[in-house]
Amino acid sequence: MKTKDEFTLKELEQMAQAYLNCELSLQSEKELELVLTTTELSSPILNEARIEMGITSVINEANEKREIKRRRYKRMLLRLSGVAACMATIITVASILFTPSAPSEYYYVSINGQELTGEAAKAFAIQTEARMQESQRQLVEHALAITNEKQQMFNTKHENK
Questions:
Q1: pLDDT, the chain, mean
Q2: What value does the mean pLDDT take over residues 98-127?
């Protein structure tokens, strides 16, 4: 009697076909049943023989294992994409906040058609730049807060499953 590891898929399929055609001896049927119960090999003819023999646990276990692997992969992929999105946001924010403006030797400011020059223009330009940077910083902080909130909602949703 061969063990389950000594049978090839083709041999098992031939035995299963012979079983379905009622051509196997009682001992060969028992041998086939033992092998089909313990092997993970699968094909339509083997599954049909398993069903005829009443061995459905192997088919169900294989399907469950496949489903578990699929869910794990999907969950890992979603988490990884969330981390990648957060990292992209952080890198973008850092590049915006820490990239210095090119210093200019000459400032020209026009407010309602009136020109400012010299130190007054320089001071106004610096104040405007500071306000713009603060506004950008607030926008980035808001975007990070929303991203973190969505990531927490996602994690909570998938932890409850």
A1: 80
A2: 71
Name the maximum alpha-carbon separation found in the chain: 107
Q: What is the DSSP letter of 111?
A: E
The Cα 82–Cα 156 span in angstroms is: 13
Residue 138, both tokens? 């607030």
Q: What is the pLDDT of residues 22-66, one digit of tens each?
A: 888 888 888 888 888 887 777 888 888 888 887 776 666 767 778
DSSP E strand boundaries for 8-134 = 109-111, 114-116
**Which of 53, 56, 1 has its CA nearest to residue 27?**
1
CA–CA distances in Å: residue 106 to residues 39, 117, 133, 145:
81, 9, 21, 39
Predicted local distance difference test score (pLDDT) of residue 67: 83
The Cα-based distances of 150 to 82, 92, 146, 156, 158 in angstroms read: 9, 19, 6, 10, 12
Asked whether 49 and 19 are in contact (CB, 8 A), the reply is yes
Contact 62, 50 (CB under 8 A): no
Amino acid of residue 90: I
Between CA 82 and CA 150 the distance in angstroms is 9
